[in-house]
């Protein structure tokens, strides 16, 4: 399983199947070895969690207790936090008369010429609650080098980490004087910002509807590259 994400996904899904059938009112998601459980009440959480642990152990799966994390606090319907104001309208990209000069859509990584793959970087960011603190981590991965660059801190959300990862990738490419850079991200927000929003924000002095855009210092630095 360690060397096969597909097998890992299938085995963990099978291990969780009885929990999903027994507790059909819960929210239970997993991606390979990461599991997210959400329930309505505190008492339900303890009961379902104990059953979940027992079921995983029954399948012979090892549980890393040091990675358990309880995220957030009892909530209610509605907006809990406004992260940022993004551009509105039907077209989030550039207007027809504008040209994409700095960031262009790249082909899939496996379609890149072999001599250009060393200039491809994959970025990601995440956040977790540790005690009373929110900690984030940004990472950049180079498939050809099999090495990663990372940065971490506290007090910010995962969206901040996603943007910080782009900054890390640009730092790496500039320090080594790469002739080109292919950035691969799973975040639509980052992709749309690179393709068009940055130009709009720059023209509006890094504001949106009269308010400073979220993470403006990071975006300004990225736009200046």
Task: Please tell me about this protein's structure.
The protein has 225 residues and is an alpha+beta fold. Helix content is 34%, strand content 20%. The protein contains 5 helices and 8 strands; from the N terminus they run H-E-E-H-E-E-E-H-E-H-E-E-H. A hairpin with a 2-residue loop joins strand 1 (27-31) and strand 2 (34-38).
Percent in strands: 15-25%
User: What's the alpha carbon Rg, rounded to whole Å?
Assistant: 21 Å
- Assembly of the depicted chains: single chain
Unreliable parts: 78-87, 89-102
Number of helices: 5
- Share of helical residues: 25-40%
Ends apart, CA distance between termini: 41 Å
Mean pLDDT metric: 79
EC number: 3.1.26.4
GO molecular function: RNA-directed DNA polymerase activity; RNA-DNA hybrid ribonuclease activity
Keywords: Endonuclease, Hydrolase, Nuclease, Nucleotidyltransferase, RNA-directed DNA polymerase, Transferase
Enzyme class: hydrolase
